[in-house]
Amino acid sequence: MTTPEERIAELLRALPAPPVGWAEAAKELPFVRRELDTILERIERDERFRERAVADLEAMLRAEGVEPTPVVVAHLRRRLEP
């Protein structure tokens, strides 16, 4: 008789491998989160930095070495809203 855990393992093995891009994104996620948290902290405490972010978020991100992907930009814009 198969245990629920063994059945779950069987089902997981039957799934196709995730696209390479997904795996790479998952590996980078913790780093990106830390980067965004650092940027948000600077925005909160540094008025000039906040002004740069509000004026041209994408350029500010590039200057900080962060790729301004649509997801990153949308996340930060939501956080910048009053």
Report on this structure.
By secondary structure, the protein is mainly α. It has five helices and no strands. Helix 2 packs across helix 3 and helix 3 crosses helix 4 (57-63). The longest helix has 26 residues, at 20-45.
Question: What's the arrangement of secondary structure elements?
Answer:
Layout: H1 4-14, H2 20-45, H3 47-55, H4 57-63, H5 70-80
Portion in helices: over 70%
The count of strands amounts to 0
CA-based gyration radius: 19 Å
Shape: elongated
Largest sheet: none
Features of the shown structure:
82 residues; mainly alpha; 5 helices; elongated
Describe what is shown at a glance:
The chain is mainly α and 82 residues long.
